[in-house]
Write a structure and sequence with these properties.
homotetramer; 112 residues
């Protein structure tokens, strides 16, 4: 399945429930924010080591995948409503980042 | 370009800068949060009508695409680090949502 | 009760549970983010009019106060851990904003 | 200065600029989210040790205080618009937390 097919399925899901009027850009940004908040909650009290090992635990992995799916689905839905091609936008952003952060700058770039 | 190819390019970009040690799950969740915050800032003072019309303005569209790209890139990078298949996770979540929110429930489902 | 007294009570609460090691700056920023995400979830599907009327509904008001309390408590806890005087910082920020946004600039300031 | 006085000053600041129409609950929640995003950006690439030491660096401290001030000011403004007594809400929440998380439960409570 491609990202575009996932977006089409998500659109059909929303249409079948007549959720279009609720899926305004501002509402979807807030919904995306809510899901990112839930993703934070999964990791907030873990040490860096515990966080890195979380995917090895089936229950933790299921929760992480569930929240990341929610983030992706609202992002994809927002892109659909706004007419944004997510993959093209992401690829164009890496192009710009190649210029902004030349490979040899290393850590310094992170420190801005 | 597929989401998987975008993820590979993003990984190569990080590897070329030796950013791996910074790309821990917690750090990436925080970076994702920062970008979602910037996306909120683009829409926060707009009326619902202004928000819906924003993509028609080339400057506003460029800013929106830039922030959505950042959100996607950190989400894709987090998935890569955690070994999560984003598309499969998103598709499985729609499967579950089909059960949770039968089509005829409509608005009520949104109100929980 | 003052904000400082609330902070002291929150600190005593954490100390009594030996939560100090979990209350690192990064963890608290993530926990604050999680609560802001929950606050978004309360408002995300409401129209502007429904959102303005929400405090008139006792159940909705209780949920809003609960989430705003959580946001405040993690913010206060983070300030305590970092040694930040929140009220002084907020007051100093209004001082700077008085200069950045002269009163007659009006809406323009919001549009940046 | 008390939190209530800070709220009054913030309200006068908004009134002098006729920002009332922009300060709807949803808009303020989004603005709060944007500032929490900026706070995340300050800490996202730091190790836990670097984050704990950040307040010792005058520049880093100034940036942290600035972002925490923004978070507080939007939270205080949202509370004013919604008619919420933040300190009372926070205090009532600690009351409930005393019951939810008895002192001897310790870490377990964090793990839910």
């Amino acid at each position: 399945m491609t990202l575009e097919e996932l977006s089409s399925r998500q659109r059909a899901f929303a249409d079948a429930r007549a959720w279009g009027p609720f899926h305004t850009p501002k509402n979807l940004v807030m919904a995306l924010t809510g899901e990112v908040g839930e993703l934070n909650e999964l990791f907030q009290w873990l040490t860096p080591e515990e966080a890195a090992a979380a995917p090895d635990d089936p229950d933790a992995r299921a929760r992480i995948e569930d929240e990341m799916a929610d983030v992706l689905l609202y992002l994809v839905r927002l892109a659909d409503v706004l007419g944004v091609d997510l993959i093209a936008a992401g690829n164009a952003k890496i192009d710009r980042n190649e210029t902004r952060f030349p490979p040899d700058v290393g850590r310094t770039a992170l420190e801005r």
